[in-house]
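Practice problem: predict the structure.
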Amino acid sequence: MATAPTTPHRWRFFRLGGFDQVRLDTPEDLLHLDQLDPKLWSVLSCPTSGLEFDARTLELIDADLDGHVRVPEVQAAVAWACAMLRDPSCLLEGGEALPLSAIDDGSPEGAQLLASARQILINLGKAGESAVSVGDASDKSKIFGASCLNGDGIVCPALTDDAEVRAVIEAIIERFGAETDRSGEPGVSREKCDAFFDEARAYAEWWVAARAPGATVLPLGEDTAAAAEVLEAVAAKVDDYFARCRLAAFDPRAADPLNRPAEVYASLADQELSATADAVAALPLARVAAGRDLSLTDGVNPAWIGAVERLRIRVIVPIVGERDTLSAEDWDAVKARFSPYREWLERMPGERVASLGYERIAALLSAGAEQAIHDLIEQDKALEAHAESIDAVERLARYHRDLFKLLTNFVSLRDFYAPGKQAIFQAGTLYLDGRSCDLCLRVDDMVRHSALAHFSGTYLAYCNCERHGEAPMTIVAAMTEGDGDNLMAGRNGVFYDRRGLDWDATVVKLVEHPISIRQAFWTPYKRIARLIQEQIQKFAASHDKVAAAEASGGAAPMPFDIAKFAGIFAAIGLAIGAIGTALAAMVAGLLNLPWWQLPLVVFGVMLLISGPSMLSAGMKLRARNLAPLLDANGWAVNTRARINLAFGSSLTHVSKLPPGSRRSLDDPYADRKRPWKTLVFLGLVVFVLAFLWYEGYLVPWISQWLETLRSAGEIG
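Answer:
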C-alpha cells in the first residue's frame, strides 16, 4: 500500500496565466497533496453540476453531498485512491479500465476490494478479464441481479423459491409501495414487512372479536355484511316514509302535500317514463297516511320495488319474521340490530390489507411468511460489507479514470491554459460573426451571472441555445479577438457542445469591454465617421421635414434677410481665412521638413489620435480575469487567472483564408467607384496652392527649390 512519507515534499511550479501553478507529474506529488498549502491551490471549491465532467465521480468525491467539491474532499479522494493502489502513478495515466493488478491487496480493505472486483467480473460473465471498467463497476442491475443477495436490506420477490413468500412480498409491494433494490428491482425492507404484518394482525384480531361468544356485532352471522348493504341502500327512503307518516299524524292537513300534489304528476305526463326514472324515484316510497305501516308488497314506488323486496327477504324476514307490512317500531328495531355492526366497521384497522380478506390474512399469519421474509432480509444485510466493497470498486475505477483530470482543473488550471485542451468548465464552441469562441460556460441565472462576470473585464455575449429534443440552455461566450461592431442582441449563431451537437444560439445580452488593440486603434476614427454621418442625416432629415411641411401647405418659409445672411457670410469668410492660415502654416512646416520625416509626422498624428484609446484598451485587456466568470457560476477561484492578449487570441479565432488559397478580386456586385473623392481631394489641393500663391508663399518656395536644384547641378 502506497503511503505518504512524513518528510516535507519539494514542490515544483510553472508560470502560466500570470500566476504560479503547482506541477502534479509524479506519484510523490499525489502522495503529498495534503501538505500543499490551500493558498497555492488554483480553486478552493467547484459545483458538482453544469461541468463537462462525470457527475457521478463528483458525487462520490462530494462527501457531504452539498453540491460542491472542496479542498479537503479532493485531498481525501486522492489519499484513498493512493492507498488502494500499488503504484499511484496509474492515476496520472488514467484510462477507462482499472487493471486488477493495480489494486493493492496488502490491507484488509484492499483485499476485499480486489475480491469484489473479481466477483463483479464473475457476475458479468467476464471471469477471465484482467481489468474492470467503469461501466462494469457501475452497472448495478447486472452486478446485483434480482435473484442475488446484495447487502442493502431490501428483498425482491425473485429472491425466494417459496411461492407463498413470493406472493406475500408482492402483496406488500402492491399495498405499501416498493423500495428499489441495488439491482434496480422493486423490493421490501424490514420496515415495510413489519408494517404489513402489524396491520394484518390487527385486522385479524378485529375480525375475530366480532365472532366471539356473546358478541352482537353480526346479527345475521356471515350474511350480516350483505344484509347491511341491502339495508343501507333503502334506509334513507324508508326513514323518509315513516317521517312523512308521523307528520301526517301530527297534522292531517299535511297528508295531501306530503304525497305530492297532482301538478307534479301532470308534469310527468308528457315525459317518456321508466320505473327507474329519477323523477319517479324522487317521489315518496309509498302513499303517506297518518299511522300507516309500510306495505312491502303492494303500493310501493315503482323505482324502489326491487330494493324493498330485497329488504324484506334479506333483512326483515331474518330479523322480525315473515310479514307483508313493516311498522315504524319494527323498522327501528331492525336498525338497532345493525348498529353494533356499523360501529364495528368504523373501528376497522388495517385498511391497506383489508382487501385480502380475513381468510387470506389468517392463512398468511399461520404460514410463517413473516419469519421467512425476515430471514431473507437478515441474509441480505449480512452481505453489506461485500456490497459496499463492490461500491468501492466503482469509486476506485472512477477515480482511476477521472481524478487526475479534476486535479488539473482544481489544484491547477493546466487544462485551461494548455494548448489543445479544454477545461471542465468550457461547454463548447460558439460560431458567431465570423469567429469561433472556445471560452463558453453554461449559465443558470443570466442576470446574477452578468452582475459578477462584468468584473472579468472581458467582452461577453450571453446566448440562449435551443435544439430539438433537448432542454434549452443559456451560455456565455467570451469574445477575445476581432471587434464588436456587428455584435448586437438578436444576432444568431451556432453553438457546438462538447458532444459535437449543434444548437441554435441567439444573443440576448452583451457585456461590453475592449476586445483587441486593433479595435481600439480604429475606434476614434469610427466615432468621428459616425458623428459626421449622424450630423448629415440630421441635416437631411430637417430639410426633408421642411420640404414636407411646405408641400402639405404648412407655414411659408421665412423671407430672405439680407442683413442676417451678410453677417453669416462674413463669419464664414473669417472661418475659412483662419482655416486657410492654419493649413498654410502646416503645409509650410511640412515642406520645410526632409522627405523621410513626413511619414513620421503622419504616424505621430495617428498615434496622437489613437494612442489614448489603444493605451486604455491595452491596460484593460491585460487585466482580463477568468475568476469572476467562474465565481459567478458557483466556483471559488483562488487566484487571478489572467486572459492576456496572447492567450486571448487562442480562445477566439477570427475567419481568415487558409494558406495557399487563391482569391479573385473580380466582384460583379462590388460598389460602383465614383470620382467624387478624387475630385474633392484635387479641389482641396488647388485651394491650398491658390491660397499659398495669394499670400506670397508659393513663389519664394519655388525660387528656393529651383536654386537648390541648380546648385546641385541637377538643372542648367
